[in-house]
Specification:
Blueprint: H1 4-9, E1 17-18, E2 21-22, E3 24-25, H2 36-48, H3 59-79, E4 87-90, H4 93-108, E5 114-118, H5 127-136, E6 139-143, H6 153-159, E7 164-170, H7 182-191, E8 196-199, H8 211-214, E9 218-222, E10 233-237, H9 239-244, E11 255-258, E12 263-265, H10 279-295, H11 297-316, E13 321-324, E14 333-338, H12 343-352, E15 355-356, E16 358-360, H13 365-371, E17 376-380, H14 387-403
Parallel strand pairs: 3-15, 5-6, 5-7, 7-8, 8-9
Antiparallel strand pairs: 1-2, 4-10, 9-10, 11-12, 13-14, 14-17, 16-17
The protein binds 4'-deoxy-4'-aminopyridoxal-5'-phosphate.
4'-deoxy-4'-aminopyridoxal-5'-phosphate (PMP) binds near residues 93, 122, 124 and 202.
Length: about 400
């Protein structure tokens, strides 16, 4: 039973007003709101259990360590990894990709080797590779897409050469909502002996993800997009792969023994976790994953699917509406433009009505270039949004449209 009133009551911020209007929060692709359970777990740890983790002999340190490592187990279970050794805590998707780009390119690639990405990647799955490209002479190849926002899988297959060393693709596009067929794409890459990194920033909050079923070699996501706190995220990697990669940053936690002559590194996953980890953040993240798990990821997916279908239908009733991204498999993101109204003007005027949407290029400028536009308005839904909020969005757009 999906009790939307009960769910909304868990998120105190949804009860506030902006400019005297009830908040309609439709910017979940950027970040999600936090349920009481997450905030309380964080407060509780600061009030009662705060101490630096690992190596501490005292009571609080051991308790904080147990909480932190239990959170790692919660993440493992949530994505069905084989072992907690495969769960590396990071600051978020961006840091996870940078970690992998740096360590993978350093140890597994030479000048002239190639990484395949796609047209619809977020800048955080483009620029880290470009930094490596500049430093190490690595080449980026890009999977094209059709006008509906689906990747061209035949073209993808043709991009593989003996120099292809990695594929790095979004599971769900943050602009088009396209759910890419990553399982199939991973199988294709594996047939060429190439591992795959999946950017799960926009999939983890919205659908069940099983990294073993996908056979993903690496899978990354951010806590704050799945109702958890900011500043914490995950890099999942198959143990064999993580073992082959060198450390990313140096410092405490990641070492076994240090002398001025030679340092040996800690075992997985600590080899990649230099410095004091965000152990409070990991507690919050685990609480958030418990929260969505209790609702059921399948249930959330079905609810959001119905909401997005309804929103698409209602938005299409608006004269001059252009929706970008009409793939067969689509997540709960709708990007659009209306007539000649600039996306920034539309977003600003909707804001005055209490409706929070995102405007601009959504950190996907190459995709904007492919679409031949500068930006869009984006409504992105979360597990607490309602049809009434969709109606408010549609009425708001209509009002703005009549002003122009
Ligand atoms: N990839 C995708 C597909 C995203 O939507 C985002 C966030 N908008 C990111 C990566 C980056 O996530 P973060 O800023 O949390 O590191």
């Amino acid at each position: 039973m999906y009790d939307i009133h009960q769910i909304r009551a868990d998120f105190p911020i949804l009860g506030r007003t902006v400019y005297g209007k009830p908040l309609v929060y439709l910017d979940n692709g950027a970040t999600t709101q936090k349920p009481r359970q997450v905030v309380e777990a964080i407060t509780n740890e600061y009030y009662n259990t705060n101490a630096n983790v690992h190596r501490g002999v005292h009571f609080l340190s051991q308790q904080a360590t147990e909480l932190h490592e239990a959170s790692r187990e919660t993440v493992r279970r949530f994505i069905n990894a084989r072992s907690t050794n495969e769960i590396v805590f990071t600051r978020g998707t961006t840091e996870s990709i940078n970690l992998l780009a740096a360590t993978f390119c350093q140890s597994q690639m030479q000048a002239g080797d190639e990484v395949i990405i796609s047209t619809m990647e977020h800048h955080s799955n483009i620029v880290p590779w470009q930094l490596q490209a500049t430093q190490r002479g690595i080449v980026l190849r890009v999977i094209p897409m059709d006008d509906r926002g689906e990747l061209l899988l035949d073209e993808y297959e043709r991009l593989f050469t003996p120099k292809t060393k990695l594929v790095s693709i979004a599971h769900v596009s943050n602009v088009l909502g396209t759910v890419n067929p990553v399982k199939e794409m991973i199988a294709t890459a594996h047939a060429h002996g190439v591992p795959v990194l999946v950017d799960g920033a926009q999939s983890i909050p919205h659908m069940p993800v099983d990294v073993q079923a996908l056979d993903a070699d690496f899978y990354v996501f951010s806590g704050h997009k799945v109702y958890g706190p900011t500043g914490v995220g995950v890099l999942y990697g198959k143990e064999d792969w993580l073992d082959k990669l060198p450390p990313y940053q140096g410092g405490g936690e990641m070492i076994q023994h240090v002398s001025f002559e030679k340092t040996t590194f800690n075992e997985l996953p600590f080899k990649f976790e230099a410095g004091t980890p965000d152990y409070i953040g990991t507690t919050g993240l685990a609480k958030a994953l418990d929260y969505v798990s209790a609702l059921g990821m399948d249930t959330i997916a079905a609810y959001e699917h119905e909401l997005t279908r309804y929103a698409t239908r209602r938005l299409k009733e608006i004269p001059g509406m252009r929706i970008f991204g009409e793939s067969e498999q689509k997540g709960s993101v709708i990007s659009f433009l209306v007539g000649n109204i600039h996306h920034f003007d539309l977003g600003t005027l909707l804001d005055r009505l209490g409706i929070a949407v995102r405007t601009g290029h959504h950190c996907a400028q190459p995709l904007m270039t492919r679409l031949g536009i500068e930006g869009t308005v984006r409504a992105s839904f979360g597990l607490y949004n309602t049809k009434e909020e969709v109606d408010a969005l549609v009425a708001g757009i209509d009002r703005v449209r009549k002003m122009f």
